[in-house]
Structures are given as C-alpha cells and as structure tokens.
Amino acid sequence: MTTSLPEPYQSNFKLPPLQPDMAFVHSRFAHFIAFGGGVGLSRYAPGTMGTLIAFPIFWSLNSMFEPIALLLAIDIFFIAGIWACSVTGKALNAHDHSGMVWDEIVAFMLVLYFIPDHWLWTIAAFILFRFFDILKPPPIKYFERKLRGGLGVMFDDLLAAFYTLLCLAGWKSLVLFESYF
Fold it and tell me: What is the DSSP string of 141-172?
C-alpha cells in the first residue's frame, strides 16, 4: 500500500527571524564570522560596534602584513563574508540581520587601508562611513533591496566605504590642495 502526500502548497507565510544569542554565534563558524565574534549581539548600535571592532583588527593585521598582503587579506575577508552572511541569514530567516556586522568590519578595514594614518582622518572616516551606512544614499539603498544573500549584505557596505573614500579624497584635493597623483 502506498500513501501519497498532498502536494506542498505555496504560502506567503514567513517565519519570524530568530533572535540569536551567544550559543547561536558559536554554533557554526559562519555565524561567528557574520556576527563579528559576538559583537553583533550588542543591544545598542551593533553596526557601529562592528565598525569600531574594525580598528583593532586592522591595526593588528597592518603590523603583521605588508600593504599588498593586507589588501589581499581584506579581499579574502570580503569573500568569506559573502559565504558567512549568506549561511547566517538563512539560519536566522533574515536576509540582513542587524547583528551581522562582518560587512561593516570588512568595509571599514578597506577605508582604513586607504586613508592617511592620522587620528583626524580616522575620526572623519568613521563618521562618514557610519553616515553613509545608515542613510544609504543612492545607489546603496537600491543595491540593498535588489541584491539578496551574502553578496547583498556585503556589497552595500562596500558602497558606503567607496562614498567615504570619495568624500575624503575630495576633501584632500579640493580643501587641502593635495593630490593622490
């Protein structure tokens, strides 16, 4: 005797996103990466906390690697972030959960790589990056809506980093009358 099951039906019902905790973060390596080792669990401004964590990570890697190797490491972190944020977003049933801060960490490390090593530049970069990451001017908001999965999570912060670097380069060349060339 065979039993047939009814065909699965399509429903618009979606499960609510899970509320991650430290056990979730440590349950898989992808979750650990996406949540910045647990920094994303911060109750207050997890994206800002993720951006702040980029400082010690960048400074320690900067002291260990030559510039080109550091840039390669940031690239590898970006690619790993696509995977980690994709896996974690699926597990949480939330495409871009606010606790996933690896995108802020990697994008701000890229900003730190390209700016002068001076505290005024660092503060300006931090403020500009957070401004663009929160406000999401075009085309950042467009790509945030259109790109799904890990690439979408990582790419919008990459654009915020680009805007930050563009503003700082403009300041350097137009106001300080210095040039990168």
Answer: HHHHHH--HHHHHHHHHHHHHHHHHHHHHHII
* Cα separation, 176 vs 103, whole angstroms: 31
Q: Is the pTM of this model over 0.70?
A: yes
Nearest CA-CA partner of 105 in 153, 44, 144, 148: 153
**Cα–Cα distances in angstroms (integers) from residue 53 to residues 81, 114, 133, 149, in the given order:** 15, 17, 16, 23
Question: What are the residues whose beta carbons fall under 8 Å from the beta carbon of 52, sequence distance 6 or more?
Answer: none
- Residues 35/25, Cβ–Cβ less than 8 Å: yes
pLDDT in tens, the chain (181 residues): 555 555 555 556 566 667 898 999 999 999 999 999 999 999 999 999 999 999 999 999 999 999 999 999 999 999 999 999 999 999 998 888 999 999 999 999 999 999 999 999 999 999 999 999 999 999 988 988 888 899 999 999 999 999 999 999 988 888 776 665 4
**Residues with Cβ < 8 Å from 86, sequence gap 6 or more?**
149, 150, 151, 153
Distance CA 168, CA 81 (A): 26
For residue 13, the SS3 value is coil
Alpha carbon 43 to chain centroid distance? 18
